[in-house]
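HUMAN: I'm a chemist; might I ask for a sequence paired with its structure tokens?

ASSISTANT:
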Amino acid sequence: TYNRYALEYDQETTLFWEKFPRDFIERFAQCAPGIVLNVGSGPGRDARLLTSAGLTVVCFDASKAMVALCKEQGFDAVVGDFNHLPFKDGVFAGVWAYCSLIHVPEYEAERALKEMKRVLQPDGVVALGLIVGVGEEYKETPGVPGKRWFSYYDEHQAEELLEHQGFDIISIERYQPRSTAYLHVLARNKNVSELQ
């Protein structure tokens, strides 16, 4: 869907990103100064906001069309699979994955988070955006033809998912710009020594 409708998706999300709360981005930037990986970068809207907060951003997406849009804006951008990130261990100060895990089944989210943890520095920070709800489904959304996969989470599920992968929760907040509620999650990678 994203390969065929990258521009439509970009247009559909314009207003969302214009009104997006900058404090969440600023807190992430304060926790993860340096080079960050934008997992599920889409057309690069997140990357532009992260860059304006002083971060150096590497974009990563499963869609070639989305990666092409990121490259057009001058970002380093890589195509690949969330479950096999093509980066060395411990290279990123932070991983920004806003509404990325919602497009993988819940049973795959742990594997994706494990990969994010692998590429994070020992005290690196992950920022997640999740949609509040129950269950999973294929559905079509206004402005983007074609069905996409959606997995929904509540605060408890989000906390459990991250803690199970060795993250300490920094904060979980709800953000509801319109009818859809989102969870904004910040979590810190535990040092290996803390896990032993």
Notes: The CA atoms of residues 29 and 93 lie 9 Å apart. The helical segments are 6-12, 14-18, 22-31, 45-52, 64-72, 106-119, 155-164, 192-195.
